[in-house]
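Regression check, 3-isopropylmalic acid case 371:
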Amino acid sequence: MEKKIAVILGDGVGPEVTRQAIHVLNAVASHFNHHFQYQYGLMGADAIDKTGSPLPDETIELCLNSDAILLGAIGHHRYDNDPGAKIRPEQGLLKLRKSLQLFANIRPVTTYASLHHLTPFKPRMLEGVDFVIFRELTGGIYFGNKTLSADGNSASDDCAYTKEEIERIAHLAFQAAQQRKKKLTLVDKANVLETSRLWRKLVREMQQQYPDVSVDFLFVDNAAMQLMLHPAQFDVILTENMFGDILSDEASVLTGSLGLLPSASIGNGGALFEPIHGSYPQAAGKDIANPIGAILSAALLLDHIGLSTEAAKVKAAAQWTLDNGFVTKDIDPMNFYFTSTIGELVADLIQDKIPNELHPENIELRKSTII
Ligand code: IPM
Ligand code: MG
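Current build output:
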């Protein structure tokens, strides 16, 4: 298979984790006989520094002409500390989502038994936790009309949704539930917000088209609590843009490290894959960031282009590294491996270069020949 992949390395640790994802994609290409062609574009603080714009037109062009987009991370604290900055890295990402109509952000939340001890939860609470958040990504309060009065003393952000915007992502969420545990939870604030009441009405109507999926409704405040109390109850969570932003960060705590989680943003004009973590500028260039979120994003990319066997192999290899203690500093601050070592290890596993029988004592002593 031949595919064109647009790559946006981005800011902070974005380039180093994305390089490992590419390393893994190259291993997939050579093992399974595919050809991936990479073309690089700028976005975020890096793009502002080099071009003055957080998303140059050439990057949009490049993305529109690709089969999939791989993104590292964007953002820099020099802008975080200056809320008044007129040009900000995040504007690039929001504009890209809107330009490509990437309306569905899909964030699978997986837990790993070997990492339960890193979370603030009791292990028995994490048993059976495996759900996916479908977050609407191109509407709601993020993109509504914004105002700031001339005296600077009042401001507003409108939250608006149309039937079409709600239904297109709801269809994807229902279809995902059909492939999974057949349960969909709509998270809203229908006791207060008109937009939420529209979401609820439309999802209720659509339920008839998916009779095998059971649907329940939760107010967002309750959902935030349920995620921490009984996370195993969820299968597919469907929600609007802002609630999804907040709940997906909250849900990441269940995994043990923000560095492990991937995401896909799909829509009419393309598909973008990125780890959910930020640019973590303090770690940039140190080869210590966790590349697993980026590598699993590459697995979602492979799934999206129809290469599900390849995607499964990447996921299994990533899981193997975690289960066997090959982890980065965020997971084991005393005894850790570098970003690039984990990437190489996953790539080697994909090409069956790692023997089945490893000697744990060698791994303990870092004597293994595999690294
Ligand atoms: C995310 C991020 C973005 C968002 C920021 C960087 C604009 O938090 O992808 O979740 O709020 O959507
Ligand atoms: Mg967020």
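Comparison notes: Confidence is low (pLDDT under 50) at residues 365-369. The first strand starts at residue 2 and ends at 10. No diff flagged against the previous build.
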